[in-house]
Amino acid sequence: xxxxxxxxxxxxxxxxxxxxxxxxxxxxxxxxxxxxxxxxxxxxxxxxxxxxxxxxxxxxxxxxxxxxxxxxxxxxxxxxxxxxxxxxxxxxxxxxxxxxxxxxxxxxxxxx
Length: 112
What we know:
This protein is of the alpha+beta class. The chain has one domain (10-97).
């Protein structure tokens, strides 16, 4: 996982995204559907119809970065909403990218 600067927000684009889109299409989607600025330094996460592919769009200060991950088995856990956004923490994003249910993580023990 790439270390994100402090204060970076992570947004999931709820619903299904056409995974054929690249930089221009996903940037336009951030502006129109999510009503955010793709050059804000925040991370925007999109999922395809089958659920085994996600793309992340991120402005790192020098240019737009587009990351993609496909799971060999299983599906990425996604919110049930069909539109809008959901905000994640960096820990939740890490879990999502590993195929773990980030919505209700369970601790194995109580912290002391």
